[in-house]
Design brief:
The chain is α/β, with parallel strands linked by helices. The chain has a single domain, classed as Metal-dependent hydrolases (TIM Barrel), CATH 3.20.20.140. The chain has 13 helices and 8 strands. The longest helix has 17 residues, at 15-31.
Length: 320
């Protein structure tokens, strides 16, 4: 087991602001009669990797000419406690390689993080390289429940033949992959719905969670979710005021969201969001799809998909 390298301590969020934000988020799920929230798209990764991610947002960022401040730039312990203060009962540790010979090391770190963080869904990742099937198989044996694929950052096609063993394993195991494959906020050589459609034609039972609702190709990824039983979407950054300014969701497609009520999962991109966490929830409310839809998206769907049971008094949720 890899030893955890402590992160440099940073100033925690001011207590009063944290308490105000927590109260706002908690009010959202308590009003719906939920035991809390489940967030399938949060980022926890080794400190030096996360530092480089933050440096990217601080410099160029994915949106040319538009600042992207990190709203929750705190040390790891503070970030975990912030989510718990919001009432997030289960969350992920989305991490991803940008080059070969990196994924297995990330998976080792993620296994250690999940072991010491009982409310984390054990997360793993992969890259198109020889041996990917072997380390994904090892991650599954170690208890990985959810995987991450970032097509734009990794600069690979999801239907790369080197990934065939990976997709076969994940399809057989029923372990979903959160896949950033849409062309937003910045396109890549292999982003867009076409490579994913080719992949699903060959692996029709493959469980995928399309990140960011597939923005900006929302309609095309809704098509895939309607066509394939195991294709879901996450709401990460979609519908927020920040995103709607440049990558708006067509209101004419809103009835399709209602039809896919059982296949949409709440995600936030915490901590790398340029606005308060509550905005991701207010954005869903502004869709005016009803409380049943909100309950399904922010808790029930993920609880069913991952077999999460509500925690008892004073107990950590069962999510690994």
């Amino acid at each position: 087991m890899q030893h955890h390298r402590p992160e440099p301590q940073e100033d925690a969020a001011p207590a009063t602001e944290t308490a105000r934000e927590s109260a706002e988020v908690v009010d959202f799920w308590q009003r719906l009669g939920l035991p809390g929230l489940i967030d399938v798209h949060t980022h926890f990764m080794p400190a030096r990797v996360l530092d480089k991610v933050w440096q990217y947002f601080d410099s160029a960022g994915p949106l040319v000419g538009r600042p992207w401040p990190i709203a929750y730039r705190h040390d790891e312990a503070t970030r975990i406690e912030t989510l718990r203060g919001f009432g997030v009962r289960a969350f992920s540790s989305m991490l991803y390689p940008h080059k070969p010979d990196m994924a297995a090391w990330l998976n080792s770190w993620a296994a250690d993080f999940a072991a010491r963080t009982p409310d984390c869904l054990h997360t793993a990742t992969f890259y198109p390289e020889p041996g990917a099937g072997a380390y994904v198989s090892e991650a599954l044996r170690a208890g990985a429940r959810i995987f991450k694929s970032h097509v734009q950052v990794g600069d690979y096609s999801p239907d790369d033949p080197l990934l065939d063993p990976v997709w076969g394993l994940l399809s057989d195991a029923g372990a979903p992959t959160v896949i950033h494959c849409g062309s937003g906020p910045a396109p890549g050589r292999f982003t867009g719905p076409t490579p994913v459609a080719r992949l699903l034609a060959r692996f029709p039972r493959l469980p995928l969670i399309v990140a960011h609702m597939g923005m900006p190709e929302y309609a095309e990824f809704l098509d895939l979710a309607e066509r394939y039983a195991n294709v879901h979407l996450d709401t990460t950054m979609a519908f927020t005021r920040f995103t709607e300014e440049q990558l708006p969701f067509d209101p004419a497609e809103r009835p399709r969201l209602a039809g896919l009520q059982g296949k949409i999962l709440h995600g936030s991109d915490f901590p790398n969001i340029p606005y308060p966490y509550a905005e991701s929830l207010h954005a869903l409310t502004r869709l005016e799809l009803g409380d049943d839809w909100l309950r399904a998206v922010t808790y029930d769907n993920a609880a069913r998909l991952f077999g999460i049971t509500p925690p008892g008094a004073g107990e950590a949720p069962s999510c690994r």
